[in-house]
Specification:
This protein is of the alpha/beta class. Among the domains are: about 140 residues, no CATH class; about 190 residues, no CATH class. The chain is built from 18 helices and nine strands. Helix 7 links the parallel strand 5 and strand 6. Helix 2 packs parallel to helix 6, helix 8 packs across helix 11 and helix 8 packs antiparallel against helix 16. InterPro entries: AB_hydrolase_fold, Pept_S33_TAP-like_C, Serine_prot/Carboxylest_S33.
Length: about 550
């Protein structure tokens, strides 16, 4: 499951502040899971070319970075489609950059020395960080922005970087849709047919290029980008999925790493990539959904959705059943309700708006829910592109079960104890069962003592999108890494957020190279304050 909204704390703060192939294909043509010699040589060729050519910088278009300040520049970096054939087809990745400000926010007389470029990826797969240079205006990022050029980019397939598409965007965001927690056999057959059609669409729209959209190629592209920026060693921060190919990069090019922050860490265990990782997510989202329901129950005086988690669940079920009978605004059905509330599983800052919209709907006013959950025609193309890249990368990266009986067995069992997101997550990934491109074997990410500079890992204990055991596994696999845990919290993406303890560790690392002991912990951030729903004067409906 991709990170809904695809923003770490950096992105959400910015927005708030600035308004059927056989399995077992080798990863690179060599032994299973080991990048091949041809790809390694191809990367060296591409890196040399990029270092000589640099990036093609110019002004940013509105498609690149809307309303970009004059200091932000945009450009492109050329990479091979297939690293085994570096002289073959080329693609261009869009890149954005703002120069280090050199301004100490706490001492106007001090000029801060530049430390190089900080490259950021917010995850997905399918997310762009073209907005990242703008976060230097956010108070939590000003010290980092003083020392680093802030660099964002769109990975291959994303945005204008050789974009992928699997389906007509209008069809992809068609609404309303269903979201049964316990689907019937008829519904399952419908979703199987849709998954097969989607996989075919990816192949038809992409042709022979589809197989080259992988995490290993994302890591290789990152090394080419490093060279184009003129950096001998890379300073990188990845969130969510960005932690996975960041870890691949660390394992493939350890001597090219200067500093690396892995924020909300994907479990790199090859056995988890990606089928079991998604099952783990579905189980974790059930716990996070319980956190949200308990918060609503504690504020029953505001929301009137029930003073226990069980009563809140009944309110949610009531809304889902009513939307199945009549979509709100003609566009919001159970599927759109589920998507909106899944976002609250990623970011507790979204709890007040979701609870308020649900309360307003059940008390007679559907408009807040429609504004929150109805798909936007203006973003349909971007949404479809994001999903296409997500699907292609995850399906290409690893073997998936090709027998529907395995999916049905595993998700039926899990849905008995974790019904909130299990089946919707399964439907999102089911095209991988019928994928037409060759599958790779995941790289076994490991580094030994002294092979890699210390890596800083950030994780929240109750993160559902990147369950906490993944951070522990990453910490074990990257020798010398340090783990900072936000206790009893579940927001996905911690860097630059409201937790001053987390930000202190981040700044100490990026600005001074200091890491804590192998494990450090921070108290949780403050829970969000409730937001009263609209139209509280309307008569209450029997929600619970």
């Amino acid at each position: 499951m991709r990170a809904a909204a695809l923003y770490s704390a950096a992105g959400s703060l910015l927005l708030t502040t600035l308004a059927a192939a056989p399995a077992g294909h080798a990863a690179g043509g060599g032994a299973p899971g080991v990048p091949g010699t041809a790809e390694l040589r191809g990367t060296e060729v591409a890196v040399a070319r990029a270092r000589a050519a640099g990036a093609d910088w110019g002004t940013c278009s509105s498609a690149d970075v809307p309303k970009a300040p004059s200091g932000v520049r945009c450009g492109t970096v050329t990479v091979p489609l297939d690293y085994a054939h570096p002289d073959g087809a080329q693609i261009r990745l869009t890149v954005s950059r703002s120069p280090a400000t050199h301004k100490d926010p706490y001492n106007s007389k001090r000029k801060v020395p530049r430390q190089g470029a900080l490259v950021y990826n917010p995850g997905g797969p399918g997310a762009s960080s073209m907005y990242f240079p703008l976060v230097g205006k956010v108070p939590q990022w000003k010290r980092v922005a003083a020392a680093y050029d802030l660099v964002g980019y769109s990975p291959r397939g994303v945005g204008r970087s050789a974009p992928l598409s699997c389906e007509d965007p209008k069809r992809f965001v068609k609404a309303p849709t269903a979201s049964p927690a316990h689907p019937s056999e008829t519904y399952k057959r419908q979703r199987i047919a849709q998954a097969k059609a989607y996989a075919r669409g990816c192949a038809q729209r992409s042709g022979g290029k589809l197989r080259y959209y992988t995490s290993l190629n994302n890591a290789r592209d990152l090394d080419v980008l490093r060279a184009a920026l003129g950096e001998d060693r890379l300073t990188f921060m990845g969130a969510s999925y960005g932690t996975y190919f960041g870890a691949l990069y660390a394992a493939m090019f350890p001597s090219h790493v200067r500093r690396m922050v892995l924020d909300s860490t994907v479990n790199p265990d090859p056995a988890k990539i990606w089928y079991r990782s998604n099952l783990d997510q579905s189980a974790a989202f059930e716990d996070r959904w319980a956190d949200f329901r308990n918060w609503i129950a504690r504020h029953d005086d505001v929301y009137r959705l029930g003073d226990t988690a069980a009563k809140v669940q009944r309110s949610y079920d009531t809304a889902r059943d009513r939307l199945a009978g009549k979509a709100a605004g003609g566009k919001v059905g159970p599927g759109q309700l589920q998507n909106a509330f899944l976002m609250a599983g990623y970011y507790d800052s979204f709890w007040p708006s979701r609870a308020a919209a649900l309360s307003a709907y059940l008390h007679g006013d559907p408009e807040p829910l429609v504004r929150l959950a109805a798909p936007s025609p203006q973003t349909a193309a971007q949404t479809e592109n994001t999903n296409a890249v997500y699907t292609a990368v995850e399906c290409n990266d690893a073997p998936w079960p090709t027998d529907w009986k395995v999916w049905d067995r595993d998700n039926t069992r899990l849905a008995r104890v974790a019904p909130f997101e299990t089946w919707d997550n399964a439907w999102m990934n089911l095209p991988c069962a019928y994928w037409p491109a060759p599958r790779q074997q995941p790289l076994d990410v490991r580094t030994g003592p002294g092979e890699l500079p210390p890596v800083l890992i950030l994780a929240a204990e109750r993160d559902a999108a990147a369950p906490y055991p993944g951070a522990l596994e990453m910490n074990r696999r990257l020798a010398g890494s340090a783990l900072v845990t936000e206790r009893d919290a579940g927001t996905h993406g911690l860097a630059g957020g409201p937790n001053t303890c987390v930000n202190g560790h981040l700044e100490a690392y990026l600005l001074e190279g200091r890491v804590p002991a192998r494990h450090a912990s921070c108290a949780p951030r403050q829970e969000p304050s409730p937001q009263p729903p609209a139209h509280r004067d309307r008569p209450a409906l029997n929600a619970h």
